[in-house]
Amino acid sequence: MFDLILRNGTVIDGTGRPGYKSDVGILGGRIAALGDLSGAESRETIDVSSMAVCPGFIDMHSHSDLSILAHRKAESSISQGITTEVVGNCGWSMAPVKAETRESVLKRLLGSLVNREAFSSLEWNWHSFGEFLDTLEKAGTGVNIVPQVGQSLIRAHVVGTEKRNATRGEIEAMKDLVRESLEEGAWGMSTGRSYRPGGFAPTEEIIALAKVVAKYGGIYATHMKSEGDDLFSAVEEACEIAEKSGVKVEISHHKAVGKKNFGKVHKSLEMIASARQRGLAISVDVYPYEFAQISSLIRLFPEEVWDHIQKASGSGLKSSGDFPTQEEIREALKDPAVIRAIKSMPGLGPVLERVKNYLITNAPSAPDLEGRVLGEYAEEKGLDLADFLVDLLGKDGLGVHAAWPISSDDVYTVVSADFAMVGTDAFTLDRPIYPTPIHPRHYGTFPRVIGRFVRDKKLFSLEDAVKKCTYMPARTLGIPYRGCVEVGFWADLVVFDPTKLEDTATAKKPYDRSLGIEYVLVNGKIALEKGEVRPVFAGKVLRRQ
Ligand SMILES: [Zn+2]
């Protein structure tokens, strides 16, 4: 007697082998039998003829540890077929944490990225990495969590947030924290080489920590120090760390941003391929979009601009990390004195030089700017960039959204590499978090790769696409009994219509759900049925053993 039988589907098992007709019998959360189960009894049976049945997608690069305690159902993830998320990326994790780093590092990060609500609703009753995992486990989550520890937090914990080299004693203390986190269940360590404070660490310091990770067979996931002008030296650093520490390296969200860097991924992928030939274990993940992280444009300006706005709006100086509201921005930018003060800032020139390379994804009062690179648009129209932006921000405030552009050819090239996997670089959401800008990857990443890239772009077969999203990440990390439709494996499964699977989320409508996913099972429990995400909280916190 099974708990559930999925009858008559086409099993795409994750290994890349061709899909085959089979029933799937589920018992006690695991796949208990495959093949013809027409004679078998089951508490529940679902007919899935004409559907594909594949392993649940494993998001190789997620930031859901930052949001999931406030969004436990993980709707955005489950609705696109994700059942397991590798979290703690780009140097950020929620532990280990102490009172100072919670304020100086995490509050800032959560406020800018996930929005303030996620921070204020938390109880913060953990310090160590293991205690955070206990908190997640106790709360219950919709998806399985594969945690990594963030090096930025470790460095903030021991060295603080200033830019200086660590002492020998501090390096030992950081190694201890990495070791403890790995003992308590982390699968590896991540870095954000271009972020503070973790990015203040010289390569040697990272190598020292990576050696600890290597000893445990863990992974080193790196948001590199450059994804644009200095992409190649950043890849060299990742290879050097692999070589000198012996750690497995995962290059996060691999891409080349900014128009002048388009095409560089051909060489960066060659560099990685040749490192692999030398025996280094290096892989990459990628999100399948033509633009990077979306921010409110005004957030790309220095804090001095925010200060002018906050002073003018009468709200006074707030604690560091707070940000002017929509009303404050609109109000302040009506004041000629504020505009004069902003325009006379010595730092404005370099900032404009930078932001003019951004793609504008949302500009309610200038719709013809949407989808364009800011500087190109201004030049074409003969606009003074400073005047134009002050006017635009005065009208639309936080509603002007910008992102680094990425070439679609580069995306296809990276995702097609045989060592490339897929990561959302998103955090899971159960509901909108206006006015924080949201990237369509939160809802559309995996259907975009397995639907659009297979059917329309013909980049790879359906079986190979599924492999990138399931079997490969499970094998790269060494997660047992996941990532494959096989007897004895956990029943993390996606039932979808390969002819209909499609992402619909866009920069303008980032919350739109993907089409074609009929059922999602997490540890044998039905977490999505006919488009509806159920609050079953069937996810497990997977601790590295
Ligand atoms: Zn990152």
Automatic annotation (TrEMBL):
Molecular functions (GO terms): hydrolase activity, acting on carbon-nitrogen (but not peptide) bonds, in cyclic amides; hydrolase activity, acting on carbon-nitrogen (but not peptide) bonds, in linear amides
Any single Pfam family the record assigns to this protein: Amidohydro_3
Species the sequence originates in: Candidatus Fermentithermobacillus carboniphilus
Lineage top rank: taxon: Bacteria
Entry-linked InterPro entries: Amidohydro_3, D-aminoacylase_insert_dom_sf, Metal-dep_hydrolase_composite, Metal_Hydrolase, Metallo-dep_Hydrolases_sf
Domain Amidohydrolase: 44-218, 428-526
Any single Gene Ontology cellular-component annotation: cytosol
Protein name, as recorded: D-aminoacylase
Entries under Gene3D superfamilies matching the protein: D-aminoacylase. Domain 3, Metal-dependent hydrolases, Urease, subunit C, domain 1
CDD domains, A to Z: D-aminoacylase (cd01297)
Organism lineage string: Bacteria, Bacillati, Bacillota, Candidatus Fermentithermobacillia, Candidatus Fermentithermobacillales
